[in-house]
Amino acid sequence: MSHYLMSVITPCHNVSMQLLERTFESLKNQTCGFDKIEWVVIIHNCVEENALEIESLAEGYENIRTFRLENDKNYAASPRNYGIDRATGTYICFLDADDYVELDTFEVVLGYFQETGAQLLAFRYKVLKDSPDIKLTLRPLVYLDQTQKCITGNHDTLDGSRILHGEAFQIGSKAYSRGFLNENAIRFNENIPFAEESEFFIRCYGTAGTVCFLPQFIGQTYCQYSDGMAAMLKKTPEVAMNYAKGFKILFDSGLGLGLYMNTVIWDMLGYYSAVLLATMDLSYKDRKEVKRLLWPYVKSLMPLEESKVYTASKIKLMNRLIRTVLGHPALIGAAMSLLKGLKVDMAEKMNIGYDSE
Q1: Which CATH class is domain 6-228?
Q2: Do the Cβ atoms of 196 and 75 come closer than 8 Å?
Q3: What is this structure's pTM?
Q4: For the segment 316-357, what is each residue's pLDDT rounded down to a tens digit?
Q5: Which terminus of the chain, N or C, has fewer Cβ atoms within 10 Å?
Q6: In the chain, where are the structural domains located?
């Protein structure tokens, strides 16, 4: 049996060594003891120079295990699955190569795992931006009762609307029982490029007997970069179509588990409608196929309740955006062709805003 309590899985694809070393320092200085942590580093489709640098960083540490993975999968699902299959720790978490954890993160997480017997645990994170102009911030765990240190239950007893809204869009700041993942054959779907993280979480949340949320504990820093903002919207036609197929898989997974998916579907379709506007080369045939795949979910949407996150004006805008872009492929296709002829870049004209509080 492994003597490691936590396996940290980090996919690396031509990473900045300065950032990876910062990630390493945050693990090495954990108050629970670095000897209790197994760092599983997947060198995924890296150039040789970068692969050698990563392997050099791991030299002399028996609890740092590096693996080279070469394949035609260009997203993190593949190396994360590869890491799960090779991890030996009692628990698993995922930490990107440019993110880092607080010094007491795993001491706190392991303590609550032992106390609650949970199969899934989530905590809060903070966002570090490389530019003050970045408007997009992902959601920390702020939708639950902030007066409680720990909330436990399962999908039958907890407020699924709040949990799925706050947690289904971020793979970090969570940890899982490795035995639970293996017993239920839960892995990332490698055939979808965006929603695989959400689909993974939803399957875990919908299957787990006990989940644990720590609304007060901030244990991770998630880094955002200004050069990645346009890429959030601008996709190739092939990727844009894969998104539609992935969202269908995601929605069906959650609904099949009996989860309250209304808010997630609103959010995903709102984002995807913006993608369809920014992906100006998408053909009418493809836009028509998108409608066929996703319109049934649009028809099933229930009205959103007004809140701090969803103001009346935002609800009205989202509703109009989703129903216009998804519901009228010919109209949108013609408009995109006209704008493209005028050399208008829609990705640069739009901003996506997700409130962090």
Answers
A1: alpha beta
A2: yes
A3: 0.89
A4: 999 999 999 999 999 998 888 887 676 666 655 555 444 433
A5: N
A6: 6-228, 233-347
